[in-house]
Every structure is written in C-alpha cells, then in structure tokens.
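Sat 14:20. Reprocessing the chain from the morning session after the first attempt stalled halfway. Input below, unchanged.
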Amino acid sequence: MKTKRLFYISAALGLFAALLIFPLAASGAVKDGLSMCVRVIIPSLFPFFAVTNLLNELGVSKLAGNALSPLSSKLFGVSGQGAAAFIIGVTGGYPLGASYIAGLRRQQLISSDEASRLLIFCNNSGPAFIIGAAGIGIFKSSSVGFFLYAVHILAALIWGVILSTGGSGDICYDDDVLAEKSVPDAVTNAIKKSAEATVNICAFITAFSALNGILDAMGLLSSVSGEMSRGTGAELSWCRAFLAGILELGNGIGSMEGLSVSPINLALTAFILSWGGLSVHFQSFAMISGTDIKTARYMIGRFLIALTAAALALLGGAILY
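Finished this time. Tokens:
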C-alpha cells in the first residue's frame, strides 16, 4: 500500500513539474478542452441528462422495467430496468449510461451485481457524437457515421448477451409506477443532478486535454507514435490517434482528421468509440461514486467490447468500403 501511495505521489509531483516546464502547452490544451465543452459537450449532453433524470425522478424507469422485463431477462439476465439503461446509454452517450445505472441502484431498483454487469455494456457513445463527430466530422459521410453507430451498438449487445451467463434477471412488476409524483421536486432534482454531472464531465475532459498537451510538448506522443508506426507499418496519424484515444475520446477521434475511409481506419475509429478513453472511465466512476457498484471488471469489459467493435468494423468495412 505504501509503495502504491509513493507511486501516486511521484506521478503527481511529475505532473506538477511538467506544468512548470510547459505552462503554455498546458494552458493552450485547457483552452481547447474548454472550447470543446462549450461547443459540443454541454449542448449535447446537458439536455439528455436533464430529461433522463427527470424521467427517472417521475418513475418512468419503473414503467420501462415492467414493459421490458421479459425480454431483458432472456437476453441479458437482468431486469427490465437493465434494458432501459441500455437504451439510455446508446442514445444519450458517455457517461449517461453510468449515471442512469447509478440512479437505478440508489433507488434500489436493481441489485449491485446487476448494476456492475450493466455498467460494462450499457455505458456507450451516443449517435450525436458518432454520426456527427466521427462520421461527418472525420470521414465527411453520414453513412459512415451510421455504420459506426450500428457497429457500436452490436458490439455492446454481443457482450451484453455474453455477460448474461453470469446472472439471471427477475421478471417482476411494480404496481406503483403511475403513483403521483411531485413535479416541482422532480424537476429541481433532475436539473441539479444534470448540472453536477455536466460539470464533472467538463472537468475531466479539460484535465485530460491538459495531460495530452503536456505529453505532446514533451515529445512523448510523437516519439511513441513514431516507433509504433515504424514497427507496424501503420500511418503516423493512425498511431497518434490510437494513443490519444486511449487517454481521451474527443482528442482520439479529432486526431484522425485527414484519414481516408478504409477498413483499418474504421476499425480504429470503432475501437476508440467503444473504449471511450481513460477520461470517460473516470467520468463514469464519478457518476457511480457513493454506490456499491463494483468496477473490477469494467475496464476489461470495455476493452473487450472495443476489440469486438474493431473486428466488426474491419469486416464490415472490407465488404462495404
């Protein structure tokens, strides 16, 4: 334990020293991160957070659980709320799935084991980012964006079914789903929770943008991506995007600008989108903070989903493109 603590302290001191040496690179990266939050993250995520939190406060998750319980029990081995969490995750984007699952757990609507399994395959990127940023923004094609979105959902579904072998869902019905709720309280709670979640997300994006800027200024990203390119024969920008995507989703996808539509490039994009980056993972952990949801299998699960998505994109890309 002491060795681990010393490692963390050393890493923190190293970051502090890097900030002193490369202040302009860090501040420039922070500005870029904040700009992305204002232009993309807040407008796209906050409305989804507000509406989904409001629906949850009004008890719609219970209603969805009643309707979807038989299907989700057979497919995923979870209760109906699990299917609702999956739909929220693939429509709202990171880390909305994690936030919704945490809300269900806090209300005791799902078990700790169920929430831990749901977190792996229900916390996904949304259509706005995949189709807008990856499809149109990088590859200049909405059809490519829809293809990547389909791959993204399919990979998550595959692992949702695989993980179902570890548990079984109860087909249970809540007779109190239409009980009268206090609308003012529901709206107030939903907006407060949404604001807190949005601030957390922007803080993590800004922090990892600064880290990316420092690594770039130190030449580490360029050096490692160069060695990777020489060793694998892949394009330098491909390798750089891969490394950036391991850390942060937005920077990873943004680094792919200029790459052509090809099976290998689509595979990389699918991998980055499904992996989400360490920034998204920390955001997700922040969403579930204070609950008993276990995260031990989460990182491995997301990596396996990312590999599956990459394989599907590689195969589909070879056929279609």
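The longest helix spans residues 23-57.
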